[in-house]
């Protein structure tokens, strides 16, 4: 396959560049999907994988942030969807659980209605809708992404290294998803020619709270002597009206991905490997 990778400088983008060594990998400096610069030669590629996004969830709540997140997460994917229809390539796009409100009692399926709580979630939902208008598309939805770059696990590792015992929210539940596992899932879907559409791809295993994940990080780092204190989302963000609302339930159903042969490694096992390499 002739693959064009966009957003190659991000956490998932770096993992995709490693998993697709023959792809043409472009960072935001090479091509910005929000427009304003020369576009790639679309006809030269059979598949375009879009890992570019505006991921500052709280910053997206500001007036300037709303513009930035809409351009990158809604208008940008709409541009790619238009080019996919014109040039006939398969479009792969990364979504997020922030398109859901987190009020469902069980895991979210690919067919559940979206109800975003934040500006970031609304922009991503709009981008998803544009991508779904492409006949040949894969919309891949991970949660709690961990890769090479700034993320929750690295933050906890930094605290563990400094001997700091943190207070972490315990009422948001989901599963961490490691960037190489997302990349492997996308490569698999493309390689086997899986049916087009939306796929939930997260770490496997039992769902956990952010506080549980923090404890797992501290244990893997050999600092389980430091106690992680539970708190609620409301308590943690009290007095900060600028913070974006988060879905409390980020657990996604993995049945469709498993039916397509996608492997979703247990997040705790992936976490131990990640920490050992950090």
From TrEMBL:
Record-linked Gene3D superfamilies: NAD(P)-binding Rossmann-like Domain (3.40.50.720), UDP-galactose 4-epimerase, domain 1 (3.90.25.10)
EC numbers, comma separated: 1.1.1.133
Residue stretches making up the RmlD-like substrate binding domain: 1-276
Magnesium as UniProt keyword: no
Domain of life: Bacteria
Pathway the protein takes part in: Carbohydrate biosynthesis; dTDP-L-rhamnose biosynthesis
Signal peptide: none
Key words, A-Z: NADP, Oxidoreductase
Pfam families the record matches: RmlD_sub_bind (PF04321)
Family under the similarity heading: Belongs to the dTDP-4-dehydrorhamnose reductase family.
Function: Catalyzes the reduction of dTDP-6-deoxy-L-lyxo-4-hexulose to yield dTDP-L-rhamnose.
Protein name, UniProt field: dTDP-4-dehydrorhamnose reductase
Species this chain originates from: Pseudonocardia benzenivorans
């Amino acid at each position: 396959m002739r693959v064009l990778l966009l957003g190659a400088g991000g956490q998932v983008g770096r993992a995709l560049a490693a998993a697709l060594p023959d792809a043409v990998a472009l960072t935001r400096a090479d091509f910005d999907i929000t427009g304003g610069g020369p576009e790639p030669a679309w006809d030269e590629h059979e598949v375009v994988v879009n890992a570019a996004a505006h991921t500052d969830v709280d910053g997206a709540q500001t007036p300037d942030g709303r513009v930035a997140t809409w351009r990158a997460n809604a208008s940008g994917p709409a541009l790619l969807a238009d080019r996919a229809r014109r040039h006939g390539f398969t479009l792969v796009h990364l979504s997020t659980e922030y398109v859901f409100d987190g009020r469902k009692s069980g895991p979210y399926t690919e067919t559940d209605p979206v109800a975003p709580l934040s500006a970031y979630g609304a922009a991503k939902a709009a981008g998803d809708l544009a991508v779904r208008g492409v006949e040949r598309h894969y919309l891949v939805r991970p949660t709690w992404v961990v890769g090479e770059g700034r993320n929750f696990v690295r933050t906890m590792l930094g605290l563990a290294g400094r001997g700091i015992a943190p207070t972490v929210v315990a009422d948001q539940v989901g599963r961490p998803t490691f960037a190489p596992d997302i990349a492997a899932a996308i490569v698999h879907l493309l390689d086997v020619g899986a049916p087009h559409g939306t796929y939930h791809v997260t770490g496997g295993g039992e769902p956990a709270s952010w506080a549980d994940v923090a404890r797992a990080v501290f244990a893997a780092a050999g600092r389980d002597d430091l106690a992680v204190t539970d708190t609620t989302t409301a308590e943690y963000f009290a007095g900060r009206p600028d913070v974006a609302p988060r879905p409390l339930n980020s657990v996604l159903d993995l049945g469709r991905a498993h039916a397509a042969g996608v492997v979703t490694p247990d997040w705790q096992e992936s976490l131990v490997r990640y920490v050992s390499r950090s």
